[in-house]
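User: Predict the complex.
Assistant: Input components as received:
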Amino acid sequence: MEPKIVIDSLSYTFADGTRALREINLQIRPNQVFVLFGPARSGKTTLLRLLNRLSDLTEGSQISGTITFNGRNIFAEGTDVITLRRKISMVFAVPTPLPGTIRDNMTYSLRMAGIRDRSVLDDRTVTALQQAALWDEVKDRLDDSAFALSGGQKQRLCLARSLAMQPEVILLDNPTSGLDPLSTAMVEESLVILKQKYTVIIVPHSVQQAARIADSAAFMLNGELVEIGDKDLFINPADQRTEDYVTGRFG
Amino acid sequence: MTAERRNNIATILITLVAAVVVIPIVFVIAFVIIQGMGMISWEFITSAPTNGMREGGIGPALLGTILLTLGTAIVAMPLAIGAAIYLAEYAPNNWVTRQVRLAIVNLAGIPSIVYGLFGLGMFVLFLGTGTSILAGSLTLGLMTLPVVISTAEEAILSVPPEFRTVSLSLGATKWQTIRNHVLPHATPGIITGVILGLSRAAGETAPILFTVAAFYLPELPKSIMDQTMALPYHLYVISTQVPGMPTEIQYATALVLLLVVLLLTTFATIVRTIMRRRREW
């Protein structure tokens, strides 16, 4: 199967000279849950933010290498970043609803893309909320403030809000960091359904979560990619460092 | 000396300092109210001065000040808010931008008479507006710019950065993000800045001295190219230039000027409070 995303000798340096990523090579196939795991400051979030060029917001950083999405280098001159972000959508670690109602949040990306048709907006809202397993809880209060939701509901709203754009790839940066086990389970379950339609790239909350949800996984350490594999990576890692991390010897 | 005693002494000293600041203000306002209150009437604030300004009211001056304040708002608001958006959202963080910020801070500290002279040279003479409401509004607007830019920029920067990141990640353009998720939340702060700037402009004498203010002009202005009387300058004139001026009229004029400024600041406070209460996060 054609890979959805190809990362080729990608390096990334912050303005202060810190090297966040070194020579990353990675291929991500479509319709699977791809897990990027490793200890803090290993470059996972930085890599996620590069994938839809939210990294543009960080002034003065330097990028070398390429990320190819659907056959095109996203760093090439003339890349339409707005369209890229509609196709590769991000859910952040801290659930951040935008001020406004649940419906406002759900339709924001569509309205910004110029869609005005009320029936389309409503349709997408319902479908996306169902996909994110939130519909039953909010169907009667779509016009209430998004800030009235619980933490777990907010995070599923953020996921649903991304899905409403009908992206091709969903980036999830530790989406269950602040959630209780029940909400975490709901998010994890929805991933199984989501991968049928989307490519899911996720930075997990823990090694245990990584092992539960991964179809493929990559272990990162100090900005380097140590090892790539499938579920087997958590049972039979090839690299000593991966084994030490997976078995809890450090991290 | 124990820490507790030092704490008590500090509390007393700081309370004293606060009192030293507040008491004179209360005293001045009370004094003006007591001295001027008797004259205040609808008649006084609407009719023109008569008998060499020793009788009659302050109507033309009050109207002039209102017109000049509006003119200042029209000149300063779009420019200042635009500049604030540029500085907060678009300007690269480099040497040039830092110099621009420094220049704005310094402009806020320039004495108002310098703005007055600049207005005279630039608008009245060079651009040929003559002494007119237009020239006065431009000069006051210019003087107001730095204060409004600084407060508006601060208000824009205080909008949580996550809103920008999230909005951009949902495929919004930079301008859509600013329109939908930065400006609405910065509005209370921006309005506060605008009105504080306007209340300063309403009370200034020096900038209007050479650019718009008429010594005595009982008829009302017909266009923005006309001169007008204005409260601060009128107050200056009747306090120093008119022999045998009744003090009640002087204090009543001062009281009206105080009320105009107070009204503006109260309005700013109310707007800010209401909009803050509606904020959700």
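Chain A has one domain: 5-246.
Let me know if you want any component modeled separately.
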